[in-house]
Amino acid sequence: xxxxxxxxxxxxxxxxxxxxxxxxxxxxxxxxxxxxxxxxxxxxxxxxxxxxxxxxxxxxxxxxxxxxxxxxxxxxxxxxxxxxxxxxxxxxxxxxxxxxxxxxxxxxxxxxxxxxxxxxxxxxxxxxxxxxxxxxxxxxxxxxxxxxxxxxxxxxxxxxxxxxxxxxxxxxxxxxxxxxxxxxxxxxxxxxxxxxxxxxxxxxxxxxxxxxxxxxxxxxxxxxxxxxxxxxxxxxxxxxxxxxxxxxxxxxxxxxxxxxxxxxxxxxxxxxxxxxxxxxxxxxxxxxxxxxxxxxxxxxxxxxxxxxxxxxxxxxxxxxxxxxxxxxxxxxxxxxxxxxxxxxxxxxxxxxxxxxxxxxxxxxxxxxxxxxxxxxxxxxxxxxxxxxxxxxxxxxxxxxxxxxxxxxxxxxxxxxxxxxxxxxxxxx
Length: 428
Known about the structure:
EC 3.1.3.16; 5-stranded antiparallel sheet; 7-stranded antiparallel sheet; alpha+beta; Phosphatase 2c, domain 1; globular; manganese
């Protein structure tokens, strides 16, 4: 599947604090309405979705509202998809410092998404089940959209100018060379299925296990080189708004991003989702579970997203793996797209936990207790324990330069990097 259809024009970097400051100073900028629709057709019954439009950063305070939308495309069973649907949001929110204002909350969100995905994966593996799931997880706070994804479900943004932006990266071995290199460097093997006579058929897979994806939640039986560390992208829309289409690969195997966006322009979100599924069915037939969420982020005075004539693309680029941008947010960027300004605040896809958690993870050295940066478990200190070394870390590992990790999460980190095999501890 092509990862093109992204029009970008580079501009100077703008910190998130500056953008939020503009909102506060501009009385005309109000919080948008979020309207959504959902549609699905089942082939195997392994797709699940999450819709939570009424979350609050501070319980009981409507001004702190945000929305969450997610797709979970399970494989080899449904247990991983169900588990992620039930636990991922809670695990993400637990990794954000309590009492953070909106600016700090949004800045902490990309790192919290990494911690939440990894924690959910560890917890599921402890159940001893072997299914897996892709995840595309979208958080909308005002005009700011943050997307985290593993696997090949996808989220696209269709703006008022008719330019379609890809907010996720497909982790399919067939199309992602950097992921193939990472898997083999971590001890996995990549190849096609061998049939009688030595002929190779089908897409590239990792062995053992035969999974076509390089990232997911679950898949205990495949290998720890299949990592749950998500690609994360955060953008801020202009007050012209935009439309998100979040869907499982049953849609994207049938429709390009441009085709999906074009098929439902000018329609309310609820009808738009049905039209996208219908168009995918007409194009390819029902080959797989097909699930679609359409989310419109629109000005409060508009009843629905008003389409405009698409502009001719100026440049077409693929999404980059592990792209880094130096500024006050660490790895972030600001770009323009379409008629209204879509400013890119953050993007990172590295599969290395040290690069994703950073060295400045929030901690309280005066509390007398270390908190694991992934699972948030408290660990009382002892004379042999420090933030970056000690008996809780594998002796075979190089010194860990990131924040404190408990013994379980440290072992998970080592296993994902191919430093040592790991077998799940099954909790009965």
